[in-house]
Amino acid sequence: MAGEVDGSGAIALGMGRILDDARALATHWRPLVGEWLGVRRAPGPVRAPVGSLPDRDAWEAAGFGAFWFGQATTMFRMGGVTVLTDPHFGERSGVSVGGRGTGRVRSTALPAGIADLPPVDVVLLSHAHMDHWEKASLERLARRETVAVIPRRTRRLLPRGFGGVVEIDWDQAREVEGLEILAVRPRHWGARYVWDIHRGYNAYVLREGSRRVVFAGDTAETDAFDWLGGDGVDVAAMGIGNYYRPWDRVHATPEQVAAMAARMGAQRLMPIHHSTFRDPSEHIDEPLERLARVWDPSRIVCARVGESLLESVEWVPATARD
Is the pTM of this model over 0.90? Predict the structure, then answer.
């Protein structure tokens, strides 16, 4: 029948896509290889953060708080609990080999270090990719007073020392430090290396009282959050960068993020995963500029590294508004 593709044709199409992806990757990242491997001097951060951590007393007194450190490292204050997501406080996005850092360097400097943090109650980890799961940061954050929430089959990657470890699979919810944490399946993958594709990967919905917050981690366009559209969510933290080929299958464009946020009934959008690590294929301002064309800028929060949000008022879900 016309239009059908047989087995050999499907394989050929698949190989063609792989080759096209490889060419795209080589075009985008060839200039960075020397920097990644630490054999070529990389430029320092080109931008300073726009702010710093809020005063600790103000943070702890807030009814709700949010702060963006860069990439997917965010901090939320909900119900008297401080949640830190995907902590990465290194200067490079990759691993350290023989004491030499690898991976992309920061394009925007960190606004604060681990020593500056308020006491962290929950460390929330979405998946084990190098730019989301930095072992050196986790080793410093591990303490008896902190609970780590992780995807399935990632426990062996977590440093020891956390007071509790909660492993959550898709569609499972757990109460952690008084917060309800639900794992949602994003459109991504969880391997830290090439071969360990068995590892889980999560997005999360955090709930305390009537307030709901989405931390999407990494995801391509998906309908996984559409069910939230009834009551909606207060803040949706979603990645808007690194969406060019071949990453377009695992990361969303700013336009796709705006559409997902609208479908889940997000009152405010917190754009993450942009403007953090050097990427010559994507101008540092491009993701935010594109987002502002499709989403009301007055409903964008913590859009630049170092921005914070502190509130004392209780959030009102959509079904309770006039």
Answer: no
